[in-house]
Amino acid sequence: VLTTIVFGPDGIEHEDGVDLARRRLGTRGAVVWVDSTGPDPGDLDAARELFDLHELAVEDVGKHGQRAKLERYPDHSFLVAYARAGNGDLAGVDLAEVDFLLGDGWVLSVRERNEHGQLLDIGDVRQRLEQRRDLSISPGAIVYALLDAVVDGYFVAIEAAEDRLEAVEERLFSADPPPDAELQQDLLDVRRRLIL
């Protein structure tokens, strides 16, 4: 599903699909943001045509599981990050891939779903960007706000890990500690969830 948001000199416009993006791309003072949730091949074709994306960037967006990276092409850049998508409980922390392509006056964000069907929630990001009319919105400002949401999600996972480690510590130093194998398993589980 593609959604277009245009930050222009006359205000903010929203529309599903890319027709609005086609009309506003290249408009002086306007920044076009197209957000995609788990693109299908038709969405990728529409984005490739609209933004004249490099074929290798389109290929990478279509491949789920890319490593985090930044690649530069002649007319745009491609960035891959991973966001926390879950309920905040350490057991529910699963990362979802988020791809960003940005060029002169535009951003394409592609939010992939994780194995549980969850993706990065950008509602707060959109609201924050729409409310900062005192500042100039640029493609960099949009990507910065999205990456800020990605990083903020990591803190939730870290807090959940701290809570889990404190529980293990309390059990370890209790009057009747559990067997070593059980503690080792709990610690390995916390470590595995943080690394993955």
List the helices and strands and how they pair.
Blueprint: E1 2-8, E2 11-16, H1 19-24, E3 31-37, H2 41-51, H3 55-62, E4 69-72, E5 76-85, E6 94-103, E7 106-111, H4 123-131, H5 139-172, H6 180-195
Parallel strand pairs: 3-7
Antiparallel strand pairs: 1-2, 1-3, 4-5, 5-6, 6-7
Please explain how this structure is put together:
The chain is α+β, with helices and mostly antiparallel strands and 196 residues long. It is 43% helix and 26% strand. The protein has helices spanning 19-24, 41-51, 55-62, 123-131, 139-172, 180-195, and strands at 2-8, 11-16, 31-37, 69-72, 76-85, 94-103, 106-111. Strands 2-1-3-7-6-5-4 form a 7-stranded mixed β-sheet, with helices on both faces. Strand 4 (69-72) and strand 5 (76-85) form a beta hairpin. Helix 4 crosses helix 5 (139-172) and helix 5 (139-172) packs antiparallel against helix 6 (180-195). It is elongated and about 70 Å long. It starts with a strand and ends with a helix. The mean pLDDT is 87.
Spatial shape: elongated
How many strands?
Answer: 7
Distance between the termini: 27 Å
The profile of the biggest β sheet is: 7 strands, mixed
Radius of gyration: 20 Å
Strand content: 25-35%
Q: Please list the strands of the largest sheet in the order they lie side by side.
A: 2-1-3-7-6-5-4
What class do helices, strands and sheet pairing give?
alpha+beta
Low-confidence stretches: none
Task: Average the pLDDT over all residues and give the rounded result.
Answer: 87
* Residues in helix, %: 40-55%
The DSSP helix count reads 6
Element order: H for helix, E for strand: EEHEHHEEEEHHH
